[in-house]
Amino acid sequence: VRSTLKLHRFNNHTNIRHIIVTIAAGVPSETVRKFIDNAAPVIRLMPNTPAAVGKGTALITYGDDICPEDAEEFLSILKESGTFEYVKESDFDITSSISGCSPAYAYMFIEAMADGAVSVGVPRDKAIRLAAGAVAGACEMILKTGKHPEQLKDEVCSPGGSTIAGVEALEKNGFRYAAAQSIIKSTEKNCSLGK
Predict the structure, then answer these.
(1) Which residues contact 155 (CB under 8 A, 6 or more apart)?
(2) Cα separation of 154 and 23, whole Å?
(3) What is the pLDDT of residues 128-163, one digit of tens each?
(4) Global pTM?
């Protein structure tokens, strides 16, 4: 509950309406309301670090005590940070692991690819730039084309080519399992935090 801030909404420039906005992982709105003796309505927000460069994907949830105008005003304040996805509170903790935690896993993947490139002779700074650019471009392909990631992967893999050799290496070393487990374990932790 420490990671909580207030949104002030001015009605007729005389009354101040307080709304509590919390980014505390795993802490349900009901717990926050009890903590503040139901003094204000609560918005739960789960941002991610790409918000710092306007590319965040944040989750938001709120109850019936938040009017549409308040929600709209709140989102307008943060619009420069990226996009927002509304989810039911019952799905908030299981969904926040994919949006809130996964940038760390993406950074690790980029770093690992850069390590591989360095090992074959690519300078570190260039390897990081190329890996990050390729991942950013791949993300845009998914978002803008609407194609399934598997289809896009197959479009890159020429028969007997270098990409499929790399895919085989990832599969052999448990890449998919490790990636899935990262989300499952993060979700389990999220769900345990509020207990």
Answers:
(1) none
(2) 38
(3) 999 999 999 999 999 999 999 999 999 999 999 999
(4) 0.83
